[in-house]
Write a structure and sequence with these properties.
This protein is of the alpha/beta class. It folds into two domains: about 5-340, Up-down Bundle (ABC transporter transmembrane region fold); about 350-435 and about 555-605, P-loop containing nucleotide triphosphate hydrolases (Rossmann fold, 3-Layer(aba) Sandwich), CATH 3.40.50.300. It has 19 helices and ten strands. It has helices at about 5-30, 30-65, 75-120, 130-145, 150-175, 180-210, 210-225, 225-235, 240-290, 295-340, 400-405, 430-435, 450-455, 465-475, 480, 505-515, 535-550, 585-590, 590-605; strands at about 360-370, 375-385, 390-395, 415-420, 420-425, 435-440, 520-525, 550-555, 570-575, 575-580. A six-stranded mixed β-sheet has the order 6-7-8-3-9-10, with helices on both faces. A four-stranded antiparallel β-sheet has the order 2-1-4-5, covered by helices on one side. The chain is elongated. The structure holds adenosine-5'-triphosphate (ATP) and magnesium ion.
C-alpha cells in the first residue's frame, strides 16, 4: 500500500516542478501562454455549457408537450443558437490552439536549449563532461529535448482542460443530489490511485533499466552510423550488435510486460467498482424523475454529464501521469541549471604576465581523474620562457593529462602550477587561455567551412583573410585548399553535405589553428604529426622552429627523431617524471629514453 507521507511528498515535488514549468513557459513565450490559458479555460467550459443548454431545451419541449402549451419558439431558437455557438467556439478555437502550441513549442525548445548551452558554457573545466554519470544525464537531456517540451505543453493544456470540465460537471451534477459527484469520484479513486502507482512503478523500472535501454540505443547507433560502418562490415559485427540489442530488449521487455499486465488486471477490476457506482446513481436519478422530483431535462443532463465526467476523469489521470514523466525530465533539467561549477574561478584574477619572465613551474603536482584513477604523481619541472620542451613516454603515461592541467581544463589534485610565481588558479583564466595555442591529440573536426575551421583558433581572423592565408601556408595546407574550387569556403563534414578531408589533411588543419594564434606565448602540440606522411612531417617540423620562435613550446610526440630539436626532454612513465635532460644527456644516461630511442633507431635502420 502507498505510504501517505511519501505520497504527499511526491505531490509536493510534483506541484513545485509544475509551477517552475509554468514559469518557464511564461518566460519563453508570455503572449502565447496567456492565449493557451484562456483557450483552455473556454474549451474546458464548453461541454458543461452545451449540456446545460440541452437540458433547458428538453425541459422547454417537455413542458410544452405535457402541458399542451405552445412551444416558445423564440426561446428554444435562442437556446439552440447558444448550443451551436458553444460547439462552434470549440471548433473555431482548435486550429488556433494547434498553431499557437506549435509556436510555443518552438520557443520553449529553443529557450531550454539555450539555457542548457549557456549553462554548459559556464563550466570552465572538463570535470563534469568526463564524469560518466553527469555526461549520461546531459545526453538524456539533449536527446529528449526534441519531444519533452511538446509533451509538457500538450499535457498541461489537456490536463488543465479536463480539470476545468471535471469541476464544471461536478457543478452540474451537484444540484441533482450533492452526493452524486462524490459517489462517482469516490468510486473512481481506487482506479486513479492504482494507475498512479503502476505508472510510477513502470517509470522506476524504466529508470532502473536505463542501462539496458541505452545499450539498445547504442547497438542501434553502431549499426546505423557511418563511424562504425567500415569495421562492422569488415569484421562482420552485425550479428554481434544485433544480439546485444536483443538481449537488452528481452530483459527490459520482461519486466515491463509483467508490470503492464498487472496494471491492466487491477484497472479492469476497479473499473467494475466505478461502473457499479455510476449505475447506482443513474438508477436513483431515474427513480427521482418517475416521482417527478426532477425534470426530463435533468435526466438528460445526468446522462451527458456522467459520460463527460468519466471522459474528463480518464483524460485528467492520463495527462497527469504523462506529465509526471515530463516533470521528471524537467526536474533533471532544473537540477542541471542549478549545478555548481566544479572549478572555482578567481574573478577577475591576477593579470597574466606578458611576457612570462621566469617560467611556468609544476611543483609536486598530483592528479587523479574524477573516477579516482591517478594519472600524474609528484610532477615537478619548469618550462622556461622561449624554451622548447618535449615530453615523451608510453601510451597512458600521462602526457595529455599534463596538457589538460597546463591549459587549466583541470586543477591539480595536489601541488601547484606557478606562472612567474603566481598560482595558475589565481590568474585570470580567459587571459591565460588566450595566451595558449594548442593542438590537441583529439582535436575537433567541425562541420563548418575550411576557412572557419582554421579561424576557430582565433575568430577575429575571419576579418583578416591575410592571417588565414599565412596560417594555411605555414601549416603546409596550400595544396589541400587549392584542391577545392571553392577554396577556404569549402564546407567540411558530412552532416551538412560538406566534403571530407583525409586524416593527415585534418591534422594539418588543426596545426594551422595554432599558426592563427600568433600572439600566444605558450604553444602546446600533442601528437601534432601522428597522421602525417613522412614528407609533410619533415616539412612541418621545420616550420615548428618558426612557429615556436618567441614562444614557450611543449611538444608531445612518439616520434623521437623529432624531439631532438627540443631544448630539453622530459620522460614520463606511469604518471611519474623519471628523466629530464637534453637528447645527448639522456642517451648517455642509458635509461628509459635511451631504451626508447634505441628501439626506434633499430626499427628505422631496418
Ligand atoms: N577522462 C579520463 N577519465 C579517466 N581516466 C583518464 C581520462 N583520460 C585519461 N585517463 C587515464 O589517465 C592516464 C593517462 O592518460 P593520458 O591521456 O594522459 O596518456 P598519454 O600519455 O597522453 O597517452 P597517449 O600516448 O596514448 O596519448 C591513462 O591511464 C588513462 O587511462
Ligand atoms: Mg595523449
Amino acid at each position: 500500500m502507498i505510504d501517505f507521507r511519501d505520497w504527499l511528498d511526491s505531490l509536493h515535488d510534483y506541484t513545485r516542478a509544475l509551477f517552475r514549468c509554468l514559469k518557464l513557459l511564461w518566460t519563453a513565450a508570455p503572449g502565447e501562454t496567456v492565449f493557451i490559458g484562456a483557450a483552455v479555460l473556454l474549451q474546458g467550459l464548453v461541454p458543461a455549457l452545451s449540456i446545460w443548454i440541452s437540458k433547458l431545451v428538453v425541459d422547454t419541449v417537455a413542458t410544452a408537450l405535457t402541458q399542451r402549451e405552445n412551444l416558445e419558439q423564440v426561446s428554444v431558437g435562442l437556446l439552440v443558437a447558444g448550443w451551436v455557438g458553444a460547439l462552434l467556439l470549440e471548433y473555431l478555437l482548435n486550429p488556433w490552439i494547434q498553431a499557437v502550441q506549435g509556436n510555443i513549442n518552438d520557443k520553449v525548445t529553443a529557450h531550454i536549449s539555450l539555457l542548457l548551452m549557456h549553462k554548459a558554457d559556464t563550466f570552465a573545466d572538463l570535470t563534469h563532461f568526463e564524469d560518466p554519470k553527469f555526461y549520461d544525464e546531459l545526453q538524456l537531456l539533449q536527446k529528449e529535448l526534441s519531444y519533452q517540451p511538446l509533451n509538457l505543453l500538450q499535457n498541461l493544456a489537456e490536463g488543465g482542460q479536463s480539470f476545468i470540465t471535471l469541476v464544471a460537471m461536478v457543478a452540474l451534477l451537484a444540484p441533482l443530489g450533492f452526493w452524486i459527484p462524490f459517489v462517482i469520484a469516490i468510486a473512481a479513486i481506487p482506479q486513479i490511485v492504482v494507475s498512479f502507482q503502476y505508472e510510477t512503478k513502470i517509470w522506476l523500472t524504466l529508470f532502473e533499466n536505463s542501462p539496458q535501454a541505452r545499450r539498445m540505443q547504442y547497438c542501434t547507433s553502431v549499426m546505423l552510423t557511418d563511424t562504425y560502418a567500415k569495421e562492422v562490415r569488415l569484421f562482420k559485427l552485425g550479428s554481434f550488435f544485433i544480439g546485444g540489442y536483443l538481449r537488452a530488449f528481452q530483459s527490459l521487455h520482461q519486466s515491463m510486460r509483467h508490470l503492464r499486465e498487472k496494471q491492466a488486471l487491477w484497472s479492469t477490476s476497479l473499473a467494475l467498482v466505478s461502473t457499479l457506482g455510476n449505475g447506482f446513481a443513474f438508477y436513483w436519478v431515474v427513480q427521482q424523475a418517475f416521482r417527478r422530483q426532477i425534470s426530463p431535462g435533468s435526466v438528460l443532463l445526468f446522462i451527458e454529464s456522467l459520460a463527460s465526467f468519466q471522459r474528463s476523469l480518464e483524460e485528467f489521470v492520463r495527462t497527469w501521469l504523462e506529465l509526471y514523466e515530463t516533470l521528471l525530465y524537467m526536474e533533471q533539467f532544473f537540477n542541471f541549471l542549478n549545478k555548481e561549477p566544479s572549478m572555482v574561478l578567481c574573478v577577475p584574477g591576477t593579470p597574466v604576465p606578458n611576457p612570462i619572465q621566469y617560467g611556468i613551474s609544476f611543483k609536486k603536482v598530483h592528479f587523479s581523474y574524477p573516477d579516482n584513477r591517478s594519472a600524474l604523481k609528484d610532477i615537478s619541472f619548469t618550462l622556461y620562457p622561449n624554451e622548447t620542451v618535449a615530453i615523451v613516454g608510453e601510451n597512458g603515461a600521462g602526457k595529455s593529462t599534463l596538457v589538460k592541467l597546463l591549459t587549466r581544463l583541470y586543477d591539480p589534485t595536489e601541488g601547484v602550477i606557478l606562472v612567474d610565481g603566481v598560482d595558475l588558479r589565481e590568474l585570470n583564466l580567459n587571459e591565460w587561455r588566450h595566451q595558449i595555442a594548442a593542438v590537441f591529440q583529439d582535436f575537433g573536426r567541425y562541420a563548418l567551412t575550411l576557412g572557419e575551421n582554421i579561424a576557430l583558433g582565433d575568430l577575429t581572423v575571419l576579418e583578416h583573410p591575410e592571417t588565414l592565408r599565412y596560417a594555411i601556408e605555414k601549416a603546409g595546407m596550400v595544396g589541400v585548399v587549392e584542391k577545392f574550387s571553392t577554396k577556404e569556403n569549402t564546407p567540411l563534414g558530412k552532416q551538412f553535405g560538406g566534403t571530407e578531408l583525409s586524416g593527415g589533411e585534418w591534422q594539418k588543419l588543426a596545426l594551422s589553428r595554432a599558426f592563427v594564434r600568433k600572439r600566444a606565448q605558450l604553444l602546446i602540440l600533442d601528437e601534432p604529426t601522428a597522421a602525417l606522411d613522412p614528407r609533410s612531417e619533415y616539412e612541418i617540423y621545420h616550420r615548428f622552429v618558426e612557429l615556436a620562435e618567441g614562444k614557450t613550446t611543449l611538444l608531445i610526440t612518439h616520434r623521437l627523431a623529432s624531439v631532438r630539436m627540443a631544448d630539453r626532454i622530459l620522460v614520463l612513465k606511469a604518471g611519474r617524471l623519471i628523466e629530464e635532460g637534453t637528447h645527448q644527456e639522456l642517451l648517455r644516461r642509458g635509461g628509459e629514453y635511451a631504451t626508447l630511442w634505441n628501439m626506434q633507431a633499430k626499427h628505422y635502420s631496418l
